[in-house]
Design a protein that fits this description.
Strand content of chain B: under 5%
Shape of chain A: elongated
Number of domains of chain A: 3
Oligomer: heterodimer
Helix content of chain A: 55-70%
Strand content of chain A: 5-15%
Largest interface: A-B, 50 and 44 residues
Helix content of chain B: over 70%
Strand order of the largest sheet of chain B: 1-4
Largest sheet of chain B: 2 strands, antiparallel
Largest sheet of chain A: 6 strands, mixed
Shape of chain B: globular
Radius of gyration of chain B: 19 Å
Number of helices of chain B: 10
Structural class of chain A: alpha/beta
Number of domains of chain B: 1
Mean pLDDT of chain B: 89
Chain lengths: 612, 291
């Protein structure tokens, strides 16, 4: 019973074939570029339409640039016009003041790049505060930056001060705009789909978990801000040489708001979204010219309505297939089996791996952990138990660098790690999971694990942006290794699934796999069996044993399930009110009077301790 | 000596205005953790209402203040109800961008209605007193006295009344408060109402002191007031007052030493430096990191 495929079906197949290949995109770009040259040379279209087309291009660059910070990284810059201003003035000074007007045509591309570089340098001013603050405070920082740039420009007489800057030749042409737009799309898209791009996404999803997986969040933020500002500066330079007049007021908060609208209209975290947003917005604003001033009233209203009814925008975290990387097929390249035993830098079992001396931590006046000492040998599985609020998680947070201890130190494998940042501690070989699962929810299972391999990559951002051979080689290795790891833990069938869609038990498992991808020597598990039934707990126990042996790990585990702890651990330490009250083999702990007291209260005890 | 006193008086006048506007930012931030970027524009609307009430309706002083305050209160509550309430559960980004959008909307709406700067007629006769070289104008006295009264009453309300208690509790935990029988929406609306009303009164007083007004006037003043709130520790009411006077002092001193075009530059640089070294402001408490 076969029916002839309908025309629509054929068409959709054809479309599918077109979308899943790269060459149609390249062809389209080539045609577009040739068309742009022809159009500008022979005046094929109306001057006004050509102008609008150039605005579209510039706005695409701006929207992409902001989307990198706001959409992909989840920070918010609301003063992007400031970077644009730096680029615009920088490029214009070069073409007007430094070089003779006759040289303009030749110097133009260099001037645009120089403007971008200047804006990228200015981005450091914003990136550094972003190391410490995020959210509202970063919004304030970026807005102040915008204001400061404007204020400085108003006070510099060489560039006309508040009166504005004139004298640029009309150097921005349709082919140049087209070329720069394509370069921006290409570079930003390549940046996003790379190791550092995954770092950027991990910051959006869960900055702390990212750091725990070894992502150097400072480096990533700096990179993202620099790349983003570079392109904002490029757009500024193009804009200045299109309008032939710029003034500090050109780049005020209203301009920043415009860019925000384009990003949130088209869709956050999506290249296709930025392009769509810029096109729709630019065309709309031109079409509404008849409304005069009221056009500027509709614009912000549109933004507010978008935020309320569709905050993700049209595309919102989805991507046009042409912009996505072509998926590695199974058996593509060399799939490296996960050879755990061949890992380098393994300490021999029995060596002392972790030493904690007098570790003490206060929250305000409350002593959460008091004078904690520990010597942990390589290869051991050690349990930490104790009532709620006894300082177990605090201990983990101290070891993994989230808290700075009030006193005491931690030495890991002969290196003092007390004052290191979480990602540095991870790079030393300590990985952890979290009590309340902290996966990167909107990333795929595969990408979650890839973030764990952040430090296994040796190419830099420039390699990623132009896709060098070393990038391609390393990405293949990362993909292969991640697939092998997922297979080992029977998670490979979920590889393309978003982490948030996994069932609970698989989420816990994925968190462990992600931690293993960082190639740790010490694994900290914070209540891995929470919410599991007895059979799941049993399976988990087996899993921990297995990874300890296969990956030659040392494990510290916090758990309330007594059967789990007693069955799994070779040693146990008991915490109560921040003090280690007992330590030793499971049998010893079971009968320890102090431990029983801590859990059940002593007979005749007058204190009700549970609620403290 | 007279010069110094004169500058001190200028500082008090400027600082009072900043402080009163800063309270609007800080109160809203305190209860909703939202930076109400539209607040500076409420101040502008206050000034325009003052213009309408005097130039078009020819009202005397007290009704002018009432019209301006009432009008901005209505606008403030409407903005909360229509733009911010639907986003209370949404991510922070959405709320902040909405606030920016609302601000630009109010500015451009006013601009569409009144494209040219306006001149506010004199409402109260401006009397100047001269104390051995020091000139004190009645408007300066009015601004300082009214501001101090407003701040004192707000401080009393927040610290001593049932509403104030609910507001402070709301700042701590919005989820639990309704379980204690407190009508959260009412408290938030009241908070916006008070903040907006303060902005409106400040706008009126500003228009009396500097009678040329335009739709974008609220941006810079609003931002300065916001800086004041951050300097004092955003969310902290006494901090906002302190911050207002500190910023007033810094700007007055800067105007003495540098050309006036550098005023904005100095204010924002101060903000940036502060954010880097003491992001929680002078009276603010740092948030603890949760893992």
């Amino acid at each position: 019973m076969t029916t002839a495929p309908s025309a629509i079906h054929k068409l959709s197949l054809f479309w599918d074939a077109l979308m899943s290949r790269r060459w149609p995109l390249f062809l389209l770009v080539a045609i577009g570029f040739i068309a742009s040259i022809l159009v500008s040379r022979y005046n094929l279209i109306d001057q006004y339409l050509e102008l609008v087309a150039m605005y579209v291009g510039i706005n695409i660059i701006l929207a992409l640039s902001l989307n990198l910070v706001n959409g992909y990284m989840g920070e918010f810059s609301v003063g992007h016009a400031g970077f644009m201003a730096v680029g615009a003035y920088g490029a214009s000074i070069l073409t007007v003041k430094v070089f003779a007007p006759a040289a303009g045509v030749w110097i133009f591309p260099l001037a645009i790049i120089a403007g971008g570089v200047l804006a990228a340098v200015a981005a450091v001013v914003v990136a550094i505060p972003s190391f410490r603050t995020r959210g509202d405070y970063l919004a304030i920082v970026t807005l102040s930056f915008n204001m400061i740039v404007k204020s400085v420009l108003e006070n510099v007489d060489v560039v006309g001060g508040p009166r504005g800057f004139l004298g640029m030749e009309k150097l921005t042409t349709l082919p140049w705009t087209f070329a720069w737009t394509v370069v921006s799309v290409w570079a930003i898209r390549n940046f996003v789909y790379s190791n550092i791009g995954r770092g950027v996404l991990s910051i959006r999803e869960d900055e702390m978990a990212g750091a725990a997986m070894g992502v150097d969040t400072r480096k990533v933020k700096l990179h993202a801000f620099v790349v983003s500002s570079f392109f904002a500066g490029v757009a500024g330079g193009l804009y200045a040489h299109l309008l032939q007049f710029i003034s500090p007021r050109t780049f005020d908060i209203l301009k920043s708001t415009e860019i925000l609208i384009m990003v949130y209209l088209g869709g956050v975290g999506s290249i296709a979204g930025s392009i769509t947003g810029a096109v729709i917005y630019t065309v709309l604003i031109e079409a509404l010219r008849v409304l005069g001033m009221w056009r500027m009233v509709i614009m912000p209203l549109l933004l507010v309505l978008l935020m309320i009814y569709r905050p993700k925008g049209i595309f919102g975290f989805t991507e046009f297939r042409w912009f996505k990387p072509i998926a590695a097929k199974k058996g593509d390249g060399a799939i490296v089996p996960y050879m755990a035993a061949s890992e380098p830098r393994r300490p021999t079992p029995g060596d002392e791996l972790l030493t904690i001396n007098g570790l003490t931590h206060y929250f305000g006046g409350l002593c959460a952990l008091s004078d904690f000492n520990l010597k942990l040998d390589s290869g051991q599985i050690m349990g930490i138990i104790g009532p709620n609020g006894s300082g177990k998680t605090t201990l983990f947070n101290l070891i993994s660098g989230y808290y700075r201890p009030s006193r005491g130190n931690v030495v890991f494998n002969g290196v003092e790690i007390t004052r290191l940042r979480p990602n540095e501690i991870n790079a030393q070989g300590i990985a952890r999971t979290f009590q309340n699962i902290r996966l990167f929810n909107n990333l795929t299972v595969e990408d979650n694990v890839k973030v764990g391999m952040f430090n296994a990559v040796n190419y830099n951002a420039a390699d990623a942006m132009v896709r060098t051979r070393s990038f391609i080689k390393r990405e293949k290795y990362v993909s292969a290794r991640v697939l092998a790891l997922l297979e080992l833990f029977a998670l490979d069938k979920y590889a393309k699934e978003l982490a948030k869609n996994l069932p609970y038990g698989q989420k816990r498992r994925l968190e462990i796999v992600r931690a293993l991808a960082t190639r740790p020597r010490l694994l900290l598990l914070d209540e891995p069996a929470a919410g599991m039934n007895p059979s799941e707990t049993g399976a988990l126990m087996e899993l921990v044993h297995r990874i300890r042996d296969e990956f030659q790990l040392t494990v510290m585990v916090i758990e309330h399930h007594m059967s789990f702890i007693m069955g799994l651990c070779e040693r146990i330490t008991v915490l109560d009110f921040g003090v280690a009250i007992a330590g030793g083999a499971p049998e010893q702990i079971k009968d320890d009077k102090k431990v029983i007291e801590a859990y059940l209260g002593s007979s005749g005890s007058k204190n009700y301790r549970g609620g403290q | 000596m007279a010069y110094i006193s004169q500058q001190f008086l200028n500082m008090l006048q400027l600082g009072s205005l900043y402080a009163v506007i800063a309270l609007g930012y800080t109160m809203v931030y305190g209860v909703l953790s939202l930076i109400n970027f539209a607040h500076g524009d409420l101040f502008m609307v206050g000034a325009f209402l003052c213009f309408v009430a005097t130039a078009k309706l020819h009202l005397p002083f007290v009704p002018v203040i009432v019209v301006a305050a009432f009008g901005t209160v209505l606008l403030g509550v409407a903005v909360e109800r229509l733009a911010y309430r639907p986003l209370r559960e949404a991510p922070k980004v959405s709320a902040i961008i909405t606030a920016l959008g609302v601000g630009v909307f109010i500015e451009n709406f006013t601009l569409a209605l009144s494209p040219y700067p306006r001149h506010v007629p004199e409402i109260l006769p401006n009397i100047s007193w001269n104390f051995s070289g020091l000139t004190v104008s009645s408007i300066q006295v009015l601004i300082i006295v009214v501001s101090v009264l407003l701040m004192a009453s707000l401080d009393f309300i927040v610290r001593k009344t049932r509403f104030g208690m609910a507001m402070r509790a709301l700042a701590c935990d919005m989820k639990t408060l309704p379980l204690m029988g407190v009508p959260v929406n009412t408290i938030i609306a009241l908070t916006f109402a008070i903040g907006a009303g303060f902005g409106g009164v400040a706008g009126t007083m500003y228009a009396m002191a500097f009678p040329v007004i335009d739709p974008y006037m609220g941006i810079m003043i609003g931002w300065k007031a916001f800086i004041a709130a951050v300097v004092g520790g955003i969310g902290n009411i006494r901090g906002a007052m302190l911050g207002g006077y500190i910023l007033g002092a810094v700007e007055t001193l800067a105007a003495v030493a540098l050309p006036s075009t550098y005023r904005d530059f100095i204010a924002f640089t101060l903000l940036l430096i502060l954010l880097i070294f003491r992001p929680n402001g002078i009276l603010g408490v740092p948030k603890t990191l949760k893992v």
